Amino acid sequence: MARGTRSLRKVAECIKQLPSTASRETQTRNNVRYLSSCGILMTRMSPLLGAAMSGRRIVLPARSFFNLADSFSKKKEYSERRIIGYSMQEMYDVVAGVENYRLFVPWCKKSDVVFKRSGFCKAKLTVGFPPVVENYTSLVTSVRPHLVKASCSDGKLFNHLETVWRFSPGLPGYPRTCTADFAISFEFRSLIHSQLAHVFFDEVVKQMVSAFERRAGVLYGTETHIPRELMFHEVHHT
User: Fold this and answer.
1) Over its length of 238 residues, how does the chain's per-residue pLDDT go in tens digits?
2) Angle 127-132-136 (CA atoms, 0-180°, nearest 5)?
């Protein structure tokens, strides 16, 4: 008990000998304060911590999930132009033959034409790229031998999916060639699914034109040889 009393007296004497607040705090160049009374080093208190200790209301800057979602773009676009060693009519027939897509289009699992008339058809397509498989209806309009345009309807995965093929004359002096312009744009319904866009681009979209060109080779034989110096291939994507 006596030892405890002596300890309390020493503490009391130490407190009496403490200088005033203004004199006991010495600030260094690094914004570190040395409290000479007790030999404690402490850094300058942050404004937020100071406000919390004083009881003032704190409003923290924050980004909601929706703000974060807005920073990601769910819409993707890709376009490609190249000279192909097949005629406009040959390439048009390959692209307009939607019922055969399951045989050669990358990751197309099913392609059934359910309605068809001149310049228009409706097809049920199943496109699979792990871990997602999408079933949707494709509305296809065409102008022989210049244009084939397909738009997605009633899809669960996409807000928007559209592909456009345009064919124009190829190289002068090479009648069995054409210029193929391919464009695709799509937008996923959810932010989570939009992360699969990279897979869709890398594994499907960038192989699309080559897949149709190879299909033309199966149907029509060897393509027209185009000198390397006359070859043209241009790609754009966002």
Assistant:
1) 554 445 445 544 544 554 444 444 444 444 444 333 333 333 344 444 444 445 554 444 443 333 334 445 667 899 999 999 999 999 999 999 999 999 999 889 999 999 999 999 999 999 876 667 889 999 999 999 999 999 998 878 788 899 999 999 999 999 999 999 999 998 888 777 777 666 666 677 888 999 999 999 999 999 999 999 998 788 887 7
2) 40
Q: Judge whether 230 and 83 are in contact, CB under 8 Å.
A: yes
